[in-house]
Amino acid sequence: MKNHIRLFTVLLTVFLIAAFSAWRPALAQQKKDVPETVFITYHAKAGSEAELEKVITRQWTVARQMNLLNPAPHVLVRGVEEGDKTFFVEIAEWRDENIPDHAPPEIQMIWKEMNTLVESRKGRPGIDFIQVALVIK
């Protein structure tokens, strides 16, 4: 009888460990993403406007393929300031607020390329990120 109790205890322990190991990833996935909406201004260097627009568009495509950004909202507009200096404004929503701080290497490479195509203006960086909140969804 004592061996049966010991065997039952061992089998129960193994079962509980296996069950917890199987459930733990599912519990971790239940954590909800906290989206982050950003308003980004890109101050294009003279002569780099077309290339910057392509790189911004490529970033959006790659980030969407990697499921880093929510599909909406997404807006990209182009404007002119100080007479003839081009800027772009993008509004996008990261799927989770932690993604920008832990961006994958593919996105970091695109950001590096972007930084070569922009310039600081009026005391603001070449790429200016501001976290915003959607008012109308």
Description:
Helices cover 41% and strands 27% of the residues. By secondary structure, it is α+β, with helices and mostly antiparallel strands. The protein has two domains: 1-31; 36-132, Alpha-Beta Plaits, CATH 3.30.70. α2 packs antiparallel against α3. The radius of gyration is 24 Å and the shape is globular. 10% of the residues are buried. Residues 10-16 have low confidence and may be disordered.
Domain module tally: 2
Q: From N to C, what is the helix and strand string? A: HEHEEHE
Biggest sheet statistics: 4 strands, antiparallel
Shape: globular
pLDDT averaged over residues: 85
Looking across the biggest beta sheet, what order are the strands in?
Answer: 2-3-1-4
The stretches of 5 or more residues where confidence is low (pLDDT under 50) are: 10-16
CATH class of the largest domain: Alpha Beta
Strand-pairing-aware structural class? alpha+beta
Instruction: Give the N-terminus to C-terminus distance in angstroms.
Output: 66 Å
Per CATH, the architecture of the largest domain is 2-Layer Sandwich
Count of DSSP H/I helices: 3
Task: Say what the CATH topology of the largest domain is.
Answer: Alpha-Beta Plaits
Number of strands: 4
Q: Which percent range fits the helix content?
A: 40-55%
Gyration radius over CA: 24 Å
Estimated share of beta-strand residues: 25-35%
Please supply descriptive tags for the structure shown above:
alpha+beta; 27% strand; 41% helix; 137 residues; Alpha-Beta Plaits; globular; four-stranded antiparallel beta sheet; 3 helices
